[in-house]
Here is the input.
Amino acid sequence: NDCFNLIENCRVPTIAAINGYCLGGGAELALCCDFRILEESSIIGFPEVGIGIIPGAGGTQRLSRLTNISTAKYWIFSARKFKAEEALQDRVADFLSPDGELLETALELSEEILGNAPLSIEASKLAINKGMDCNKMSSALKLERDNYRMTLNSKDRVEALNAFSEKRKPVWEGK
Here is the structure.
């Protein structure tokens, strides 16, 4: 659980690129990542109840937050192995990749993210993750404002404003 928590709370975005079978602990590991890309022929699921245990590395909690309670219960209670398209439909997967193109798909997503301000990505991830733990919306919004303030006076924001006025792409420093 400590390892999975570290992955989930990593400062930078994480992408699980999944091909073949992703079952049990592997599926729980994928849930820790910010995004899950499955090759079209991939299979994913939580078969633990079929062998007398439960997903015990955060699967019961992360899956229900990722999809919804009923979908998570079905995925876990049935112990089914789901096709990639079903995972996408149930919001367990974020993207599908044609077979043989998984790495390219993951790199395209990472490049899309890397085109943006690193501090803003980090602050957004922190606000989203920590905000999910807040019981009150007012607490979550305060957390968001605190992270917004962290980016407001950054060098990257000044660079973005200059780049906009000069009609060029910003050069991020992460400061």
Observations:
- Residues 137-152 form the longest helix (16 residues).
- The beta strands are 15-18, 21-23, 35-39, 43-45, 81-83, 95-97.
- The chain is about 55% helix and 10% strand.
